[in-house]
Amino acid sequence: MSVRTLPLVFINLGGEMLYILDQRLRAHNTSEDNSEKVLNDIVWTMFSKPFMDELLKPQQLYSHRTLKTVLTRLAHSSIMRLNPASMDRLYELMIMAFKYQVFVCPRPKDLLLISYNHIDAIRELVKDTPAVVNQVDETHRKIIEVYASSSEGEFQLLRQTLLIFFQDMHVRVSLFLKSQVQNPNGRFALLTSGPVPHRVDVPGLIRTFNSKGREVRRSEFPTGGSYTSPIREGSFELHGDRVIRLGTNMYEPYTIFLSMYNPSCNASTLLQTDDAPNLLAKEELNLLARLMGSMKAENVPGVETGFRISLFTTDQEEEEAEASGGAEESLCGVINIQAMQDEQAATELARIAGQFAEREEESDNPSSSKGDDLLAMMDDL
Amino acid sequence: MYHKEKSIQIKNSASALYNNLSVLRIAPRRLTYFTVVHANVVNMVSASWDGLNYSHRQLQSKEPNVATSTSLIMQAAFCVLPSRDLLVVTSQKGIQMYESDGSIMVYWHALDTPETPTAQAVFARGISAVWENYICVGVSSGSILVFDVPSKGSNITLSEVLEEHKESITDMASECSGSQECIADLVSADDGGNLCVWKSGEEFQLLNKISGFDMSCSSVKLWKGTVVAGYGTGQIRLYEAVTGILHAEVNAHARWIYSLDIAPFSGLLLSAAEDSLVRVWHLTMTPETNSVEVAHLHNECVTDTQICGAKFCDGDGYAFAVTGYDLSEIIRYTQS
């Protein structure tokens, strides 16, 4: 399958991760300095030249395990620490968000616009640090260059590769359930209405031609949907209006992207929830962060303090967290994050992640598997 | 016109791949075989016509006698030749050919994979039986491998490599009307929407090349000398194979078409796309005026599903089956 998936995977998953972390840091009243430091450090590492160059090499997509390990390492390039259970939850949210974006992407090439939406938002997050912004711009230029010559067919192959990667994952996300982009059974909604993608004609017409190429007959057929003409095309430049809203920050209040894809959920409905915008989203994130240890971010000048974020540590604490949901229990009822059933896998993952603290001294690793080079290189940063 | 029947459950969900359903009807045994690809596995179901017996088998993509290293499968398709039926499976590593029940692998062909991956992905995709004894398989480079298949046994050989396409092959189809009069035997399609029309033989002959419009043609059929092609724009186009004359153009779907099929005895056409719709059409050829008429007959919506495979289960189009991404069932419809 496609050998060009990794740069887009990291930009989009990394972007989703930053949206969530940004929201969490603010919700916990983390000091602005610490928040900025965490986000800047992660973005700096993610968009660094060696990291990106490694991703840009033609190669197969990593496994979920490897991907999660690399993303954990990425998160830990900042002063923040996440335990494996928290990372699992975070990973699920990131994956489902990206799966949704890839699934409903109007045409395969729009995967780039989704990626650029993430990059634009990341640029905004680090805008106060020019060095990091430059890094982001450089990477963005490289991405534009690398994918400039890809055809629609190649983008579809890339998309198909990603869809295989996401196959059978149906974790329910409260934000999606509320806006009805996801059904209670975990599957995403597909509309048979709305604007058709760029270069697609609105269905319904049959044209017949004679051997001279002249149209001799025209007839219509019922489409079973209600489609409209395409909207204008988004910009593929470094800066510009991307037009499609997939890939923008869905954790921001009053986000209007959902209304584009679900006519029954228009912007005014969302605005009505003035007091508690995206209640379920907030509740879900609160649920996730319920056991977040107090982030020991003492603002001692000149001394860097790491702080730990622990989301779910044990299943029991998870249940306690849900039970204490109180009045929002009915809403909690729809939140169905797959419980971590594979204790062994989790321990294994923690062991691998833990290994990275120890591995920093190792330079040679003869038995390199996919992603090992990348991880080793990250240790050198 | 059609109503939904009981679905067949499969062991894994279908992957988002073009033409991801193959059907083989075995009348003497009153059985139908279905194959659906899931990542590196082919799910085979054998269904008895009385609906009482289903048996399942899974095939993995790998080199024979190699314990590990499976690769992602691009397509699995039954190839019906006068003397035998084979199941052909194409992947990133190579091409496997099995007896039609999946019991024995009779042939393996490895693709040339470079040591370090290049920017172009490597895989085989596009499968068609042609005429008496050929099976043609497309490759990501645009080449078409022509295999000579004896009436029995595993002495299958690579007879020719056709180098005409410059972009990855997406699908291939042979003339399915059964008519001996048709000149063109095979049509091949690629990622740029280009179509090549061939005559088979010891040396395959290129009869015509129909340019694409820079939009991938994901599925193609050849019936009574007419090429029926489905595109990423959701359009279906009908061309006269040998001359390239455009007969008809249908704005059929709002998203990428993933599968086309024709019921050769009745001229029914099936189209399925990522927009969750399956449509049934009727094709009428009028040789006197050299024209083709397309009439729309029926729609089925598979809610919230991006369809990846749709095939008629018989030559008249009395029944058809559908697969969708992330769906672990084969949905069936029968004429009312």
From TrEMBL, chain A:
GO cellular-component term (any): cytoplasm
One Pfam family matching this protein: Oscp1
Region (Disordered): 355-381
Protein's recorded name: Organic solute carrier partner 1a
Entry superkingdom: Eukaryota
UniProtKB/TrEMBL annotation, chain B:
Any one GO cellular component localisation term in the record: centriole
UniProt-listed Pfam families: WDR54 (PF21031)
Keyword Kinase in record: no
WD repeat extents: 250-291
Taxonomy, superkingdom: Eukaryota
UniProt keyword Nucleus, yes or no: no
Keywords: Repeat, WD repeat
Domain WD repeat-containing protein 54 beta-propeller: 1-334
Gene Ontology BP annotations: cilium assembly
Listed PANTHER family: POC1 CENTRIOLAR PROTEIN HOMOLOG, WD REPEAT-CONTAINING PROTEIN 55
Descriptive protein name: WD repeat domain 54
Organism name: Dicentrarchus labrax (European seabass)
